[in-house]
Amino acid sequence: MHIFFSGIGGTAIGPLALIAKQAGHTVSGSDKQDSQYIRYLRSHGVDDIHIGQSYEQLAAVHRDKPIDWYVYSSAVSIEDADAPELRFCRDHALKTSKRAELLNRIIADKNLKLIAVAGTHGKTTTTAMAIWLFKQLGIAVSYSVGAKIGFGEMGEYEEGSEYFVYEADEFDRNFLAFHPYISLITGVDWDHHEIFPTREDYKQAFLEFLAHSKHVAIWEKDREYLGYKPADSDLELGKQPFSTTLVGEVNRADARLVMEAMRTFGMTDKPLIALSEIMNRFPGLNRRFERLVDGLYTDYAHTPTKIRGSLQTAQETSKNIVVIYEPLTNRRQHFIKDEYKNLFQGVKKLYWVPSYEAREDPNQPVLSPAELIGHMDNAEIAEPAALDEQLKRHIQEHLKAGDLVLAMSGGGGSSLDEWLRKQFG
Fold first, then answer.
1. Does residue 84 contact residue 55 with C-beta atoms inside 8 Å?
2. Which end of the chain has fewer CB within 10 Å, C or N?
3. Helix or strand or coil: residue 276?
4. Each residue of 89-104: pLDDT tens digit?
């Protein structure tokens, strides 16, 4: 089957393209811009990728080898319901769907049990930790993770595996398409306000997701927050009785969730202390407190909870923290701007660059760095900045002074993260 992936450079669509190729399908795709993820896919054999998403381009692909299934990211239809590629599919009666339908098909065809990792924050790290533990224990596993990892591909189908570990994103209600064998809930707050207008809407979506799940591993605080009534077979975690030696409270909590779940639900009978020793060797993953050069780190933190977690991790490493912050989407800023009040307490210096724009509401005014800094109690530490030579010099000066420079950026192509890799990579 020839499957065409639109938005193939995305952190959810890209791994699925790899999985489809490994499962025996012909894969091609497109994206509106080049990125490190596009280059990653090409280096891993998914090389029929087109930059640009025109009607004519898709027609040429279809003429060369007829497309059986067109899979598109949520961003494609949200940005333009009449996007050229979607019009081509309608005009030629091609099967179209978002990624969930295809993934469910692969899971069913290969008779896999789905382990879904869901939550407002911690999904990617927890998914990667589960993959790490499976691999270190020598248990065959298939998976999809939304970041590059050093111990495997972003997406992998392994013949003979029993489980499929999946980072189940709530954006566009994607996770509601699945019926997991096990669901791991990493932590619930409120996000994606354009999809879930109220906090209650967000909670209800998670409750519906949990109702789809055969087994659930959830923190006590999230169970209380959601008003969830666990089944006898569920795992509820409270205060941590022991810790790994991983840096960062959020990392230690994510590790415990994985270890406890794998023991409780019969994937391993190794004692926690043995699993903890394995987890202490977890090498980390791309853009999760990732060291680019000595003293310079990049992190995917873009919500208040993720920012707090990233700062706490940094504070275990250094007392002199300098932050470069690129907010993810202007629309999110209209909801969270008041939460910047005390968010960057303890930071020595903050450079605030313009928001990374994606799937924006054209009716919302764009909030500038200066406007957002105005919501901080300690605004004197912050200044507007741009991705330019001046910012590069500031970073070099802070590194020379021995400061820990932490870049927070949730965007993809042309983001702060990509700029840093070009300047310091």
1. yes
2. C
3. helix
4. 999 999 999 999 999 9
